[in-house]
TrEMBL record:
Keywords: Signal, TPR repeat. It comes from Flavobacterium capsici. The keyword Signal applies. Pfam families: TPR_19, TPR_8. This is Tetratricopeptide repeat protein. SUPFAM superfamilies: TPR-like (SSF48452). TPR repeats lie at residues 214-247. The lineage of its organism: Bacteria, Pseudomonadati, Bacteroidota, Flavobacteriia, Flavobacteriales. The keyword Signal applies.
Length: 431
């Protein structure tokens, strides 16, 4: 009887421990963000639309005042950020082309604005051409160095990017802090990345700049998540929402915590469904497809992927979703030729480790494991700290029987499970 009592007590204690551990894994609380999910008023959207109406009328009444087009472009870009409607980004581009042509590409502010529009569209080489044009004019060099850093990082020209970073005059300003943070993230120093982003947050708060405060909080949410600091990440997303109750990016970050960390698929889907009503980004279908895969609901996964492809069936998206498309096409034998074609295009236009990874992974999926290994060794290995790239690298090593190289990558990948998502856990374990 005493033995049975001890066993019962041990089981009870074990159940209590399991319950405590389970509760400690839960970071989110719907009471923290429900008000933001139910928000039906978007003051930023209304204000931006009012600004567009105001400046459009002014321009219609004085079409010789081409500077109004730059203001209109800025507001259409805001509208794109708020709604994810690609048409607004294209309208902004058209306005910027017109104002630049009117001034014969002589005003650096307008040139840089068009370059940034092209960055958003993933037209990086065109952005670089414009940035160099601004550099040649010589006016406002500090801002042009910032732009060139951004473009060269996107193109994988890291030496040139570092040179422009070092050319920024003020090393204690917001714009420098966010770029040195990005540089440290590129070289794999996440702790220093977070430190600089926290300095940027202080600068944003000092000047009470709403947009920059939101931006730093959401970035700190992302970086802390990558570092495994899930509670901190969650709080930064909540901070962003306190400033902008309609911030879809922060809510998506919370949905990812619910899915990847807590495995609460129902809550993740609920959040995504709510924010999709006001910010209809194709990315959301991909997230819902990942969740369906985790739930082993293949019909729902196929439905979400079809919805994704339907949502990007607009030529205006250009190369913006090439990365996702390569990886999706590579999963199906009948679409491998599409995957290869897009991957080759990406390498040609943007020869980064990311682009070469797409090419190597496509060849791996085609069964050309030696060719995949050659590309990966030359252009990916040791050149990126992105978990998905290193997962692909490990799979390619495994296929080529270079097993000694897998163990250190595997350990890093297990530490990056939050960033990769729960669908990768079994894949990593089987490496």
């Amino acid at each position: 009887m005493k033995l049975l009592k001890n066993i019962t007590l041990s089981i009870s204690l074990l159940a209590l421990l399991i319950s405590c551990n389970s509760k400690s894994d839960v970071v989110t609380n719907s009471k923290d963000y429900e008000v933001y999910l139910q928000s039906t008023t978007n003051n930023d959207l209304k204000e931006t639309q009012r600004e567009i109406d105001f400046w459009q009328k002014k321009y219609d009444n004085a079409p010789n005042q081409k500077s109004y087009l730059g203001i209109l472009a800025s507001n259409y870009t805001k509208l794109f950020d708020i709604t994810a409607n690609i048409d607004y980004l294209i309208i902004a581009e058209k306005n910027l082309l017109e104002v630049n042509e009117a001034y014969k590409y002589s005003k650096v502010n307008n040139i840089r604005s068009l370059a940034r529009n092209y960055i958003s569209q993933h037209r990086f080489n065109e952005a670089l051409e414009l940035a160099n044009k601004a550099l040649a004019i010589g006016e406002g060099l500090n801002e042009t160095h910032k732009l060139l850093f951004d473009v060269q990082m996107e193109l994988g020209n890291y030496k040139e990017a570092e040179s422009h970073l070092n050319s920024i005059d003020n090393k204690k300003e917001f714009d420098y802090y966010i770029r040195i943070a990005k540089w440290n993230d590129h070289i794999g120093d996440l702790e220093t990345t977070i430190s600089f982003m926290e300095k940027a947050k202080i600068e944003a708060e000092k000047y009470s700049n709403k947009h920059l405060k939101i931006w730093t909080n959401t970035n700190l949410g992302d970086y802390n998540g990558h570092a495994g600091k899930i509670k901190e990440a969650y709080q930064y997303y909540l901070n962003a929402l306190a400033i902008d109750p309609n911030n879809s990016y922060a809510l998506k970050g919370i949905a990812w915590i619910a899915f990847s960390h807590e495995k609460n698929t129902d809550e993740a889907i609920r959040i995504i469904n709510q924010i999709s009503k006001r910010h209809n980004s194709p990315d959301f279908y991909l997230l819902k497809a990942q969740i369906a895969e985790y739930k082993k609901d293949n019909d729902k996964k196929v439905e979400m992927l079809n919805s994704y492809f339907n949502s990007i069936d607009n030529k205006e998206y250009g190369a913006m979703y090439n990365k996702y498309n390569v990886l999706l096409f590579a999963e199906e034998p009948q679409s491998l030729s599409k995957s290869l074609s897009i991957a080759e295009e990406e390498v040609e236009h943007r020869p980064t480790p990311d682009s070469y990874d797409l090419l190597a992974w496509t060849y791996f999926k085609m069964g050309e494991k030696e060719k995949a290994l050659e590309i990966a060794k030359q252009h990916v290995a040791g050149k990126s700290f992105e978990p998905k790239l290193n997962y692909h690298l490990a799979e390619i090593y495994k296929a080529n029987n270079e097993l000694d190289k897998i163990k250190p990558i595997k350990e890093e990948l297990m530490n990056s499970l939050f960033e990769l998502g729960p669908n990768y856990e079994e894949k990593i374990k089987s490496l």
